[in-house]
């Protein structure tokens, strides 16, 4: 099974809503996503993405079926050549190497087409699967950010990973 990355399409809304209507996924994402996640929420996200950040927020697709999302977010000011990367996969697609494949694809694209030299990600420390995806994609662990977030009523640690353009 191979994955590709592509721009979001409005017709992806139903599949996106089904993926994000999962508390296991939302538990490892930043706050701000509604739960339950409805088709109208997905449509709003897709329209906003297409109007504002088209090339850096992409659908992860297998055989034209949306299985997740990946995005790269350029930082500002003195960090302008750095970008944060975030991603998720639908639960049926966990453990199949698709997250690593998608991450490698977008990193290659960013390094080849932009002036960004540093990509970073900050998964929650207890999200071992996401940490493994980053490591398999060549990211290096820089350290732990202790009690750096407050999620679902508790403080959580994060891991700081980065990938540097050679």
Count structural domains.
Answer: 1
Spatial strand sequence of the major β-sheet: 1-2-3-4-5-7-6
CATH domain topology: Aminopeptidase
Q: What oligomeric arrangement do these chains adopt?
A: single chain
Mean pLDDT: 95
**Could you give me the name of the CATH homologous superfamily?**
Gcn5-related N-acetyltransferase (GNAT)
Can you tell me the residue ranges where pLDDT is under 50 for at least 5 consecutive residues? none
The number of helical runs is 5
Based on helices, strands and strand pairing, what is the structural class?
alpha+beta
| SSE pattern | EHHHEEEHEHEE
In the CATH classification, which architecture applies? Answer: 3-Layer(aba) Sandwich
**Whole-Å distance between the termini?**
29 Å
InterPro entries: Acyl_CoA_acyltransferase, GNAT_dom
Protein name: GNAT family N-acetyltransferase
Pfam family, one: Acetyltransf_3
């Amino acid at each position: 099974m191979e994955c590709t990355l592509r721009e979001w399409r409005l017709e992806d809304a139903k599949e996106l809503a089904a993926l994000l209507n999962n508390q296991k996924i939302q538990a490892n994402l930043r706050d701000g996503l509604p739960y339950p996640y409805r088709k109208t929420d997905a449509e709003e996200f897709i329209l906003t993405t297409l109007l504002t950040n088209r090339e850096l927020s992409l659908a992860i697709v297998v055989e034209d079926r949306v299985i997740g999302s990946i995005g790269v977010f350029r930082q500002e000011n003195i960090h302008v050549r750095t970008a944060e990367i975030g991603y998720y996969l639908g639960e049926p697609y966990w453990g199949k190497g698709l997250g690593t494949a998608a991450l490698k694809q977008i990193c290659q694209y960013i390094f080849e087409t932009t002036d960004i030299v540093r990509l970073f990600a900050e998964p929650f420390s207890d999200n071992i699967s996401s940490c493994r995806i980053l490591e398999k994609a060549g990211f290096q662990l820089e350290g732990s950010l202790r009690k750096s977030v407050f999620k679902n009523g508790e403080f959580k640690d994060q891991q700081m990973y980065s990938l540097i353009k050679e």
